[in-house]
Amino acid sequence: MPITKEYLKEIEEKALKAKDKKALYGPDINLEKYTQYIERGKIESLESLSRQVKEAAILTGINLEEKERSGSYMQIDQSVVYESLNKSYEGQLEIMSTTDALNKYDWMEEYFWKAVPVDMDKYTSQVALNMTHGYFIRVFANQKPQYPVQSCLLVAENYVSQNVHNIIIVEEGAELQVITGCSLSKNDAEGIHLGISEFYIKKGGKLFFTMIHNWADNFHVRPRTKIIIEEDGSFINNYVLLKPVKSIQSFPVAHLKGDRSSAKFNTVIYGLKDSYIDLGSRIILEGEDTRGESIARTIGADESVIYSRGDLIAKTKGYCLAHLDCRGIIFSKKAKIFAIPELVSEGSMKSELSHEASIGPIAEEQVEYLMSRGISKDDAVSVITSGFLNLDIPYIPEFLDKNIKEVIKATAKDAL
Amino acid sequence: MEEMLRTEDLWVSIGERQVLKGVYFSMNYGEINVLFGPNGAGKTTLMMTLMGFPKYRVEQGKIYFKGEDITHLDLYERARLGLGISFQRPPTVKGVSLEKLIGIINTNGRSKEYLDSIIEKLNLSRHMQRGLNDGFSGGEMKRSELLQLMVQRPDLVLIDEPESGVDIENIALVGEAINSLLGKDKVKDKKRSAIIITHTGYILDFVNADKGYIVFDGKLLCRGNPRDILSEIKKHGYRRCAECR
């Protein structure tokens, strides 16, 4: 049974009220520019995608042969072109578009726009009023698929506003890994990606989520994400941005509602060209004995401007422990990094919150140390920078590592 | 034996400070030379200058290594030519593991079995995944330095205070590793050489050094048997050096 019309009406009314509401952070985008709508048909396999699309997908960690994947979801512009579930995982999880899930399950009312406020700003409003699918992934209670689900949200045309709404539900005692890549198949494409992500991790569940963003010079991105974690649940998030973007602003929130729940954010940002990047993570520690950790590694190259935010908010009456580690390296005289850590304890007498933040150049003595072992200066800078970025993420393909080395070589010349 | 290293009238400054003031030094293949001297005399400066660290500016003079003028050669090129260094206090590089660095510098393709055996010998198995020198004790740092050099296999090793921060038990292990690095534990391969800086002289109980020098106020003085020099220093300190100048 589909979700009720009354609920959808309620969402719409709230969204309409926020239609012109500016976001708290990031440059304001005129959404009226992005009106292009392209309807695309389904494909039989990821191998049948065009060469350009394939290349873009691969760069975000998508495995076209679907090896070592429990399922796949792909969307190009506004259309869902591919959904599949590896047969050996049938009965363990389900993958479909959020539109289909809303038509299939009336209980989606408990999840749809329940974590992210629909009237947060004009971008949430736009997604609510003009939703163009997004993925729905649910892993059933106590199921632990061995391999990750991969998802790719790709923009192929100019002036598209891709308005996706993603929902992940990890049922009690279940575990799920997701690799999601967002990208463009044209390097000069102008457009916007709006992504609502609402993830629910039930009692004892685990979600290991990796997101790779590959955008381009004329593209805006405004994700809005909230994760609700129940008792004994855990959430690990890896986020990687290695390509230029016109502007991106996102401040995902992990809400540790249940006792003994935990969240960890690893964020890797490489600011290139004149990218405007405002990214962060917020962990709300409400349950007792909750744990949070947020690690951000930021490199400011070219003329990029990066805001690296991190908030830890303790609300629990019991014990909680959380730490922010926010470090940046400046590669260029014209780049800017703002590291903004914030610790808040709302009468949480037993909370232990801490942070360390630093911005500086690559330490010359480290480079010379490696050079004294016969490593050239460029290679030494590359090895140290790769180590600093800490890209040791499972299921990330080798070429991403190669790609980052090339980016480092191209931008690190003026680092010392 | 053939000459391996020679410096001629070497004047070196760090920033505005003149540290080395005309150093003439030479050594042959296979030799182990020891440098003594008070703090600030220029021992480490000489070593870092030989290695080619940019902070140590050669104002005057020449450095020849294996017959080649290396006075203005880049640090990494000197390493590739056969110079290696064990730091007194190496920097911490958090994101780069010891294992990763060993993989990069193993350009000779030494087998995994060989690497595993020396890692075990140096008692570093538990340190391979950690960032370079991240939380390492004094002894662990020295062993890590020697491991890197054993993989790098330089012809001339510059070792800055191998016993500093190392407990008595580990000095024997460090000494053994230096001998192994220099091929002194083998009948063949006697061409490898070393320059060692020592304050305490403990390392001389484990490493058979050929010559000793005192570095004093930026110059090399008192060449001789390293044990005799050490015993002289123990008796009289460096007071006599001032008189010698």
Structure overview:
The complex is a heterodimer of chains A (416) and B (245). Helix content of chain A is 17%, strand content 41%. With 416 residues, chain A is an alpha/beta fold. In chain A, the strands form two sheets. In chain A, strands 2-1-5-7-9-11-14-16-18-20 form a ten-stranded mixed beta sheet, with helices on one face. In chain A, α5 crosses α6. Chain A starts with a helix and ends in a 5-residue tail after the last helix. Chain B is 33% helix and 30% strand. Chain B has a six-stranded mixed beta sheet with strand order 6-9-10-3-11-12, sandwiched between helices. Chain B has a four-stranded antiparallel beta sheet with strand order 2-1-4-5. In chain B, strands 7-8 form a two-stranded antiparallel ribbon. The longest helix of chain B has 15 residues. Chain B starts with a strand and ends with a helix. At the A-B interface, α5 and α6 of A face α2, β7, α3 and β8 of B.
Short recap of the structure:
The complex is a heterodimer of chains A (416) and B (245). Chain A is α/β, with parallel strands linked by helices and 416 residues long. Helix content of chain A is 17%, strand content 41%.
What key phrases describe this protein's structure?
heterodimer; A: 416 residues; alpha/beta; ten-stranded mixed beta sheet; 20 strands; globular; B: 245 residues; four-stranded antiparallel beta sheet; 12 strands; 30% strand
Termini separation of chain B: 30 Å
Mean pLDDT of chain A: 93
Number of strands of chain A: 20
Radius of gyration of chain B: 18 Å
Largest sheet of chain A: 10 strands, mixed
Q: Given the C-alpha coordinates, what overall shape of chain B results?
A: globular
Strand count, sense and closure of the main sheet of chain B? 6 strands, mixed
Proportion of residues in helical segments of chain A: 10-25%
Range of helix content of chain B = 25-40%
What is the strand content of chain A? 35-45%
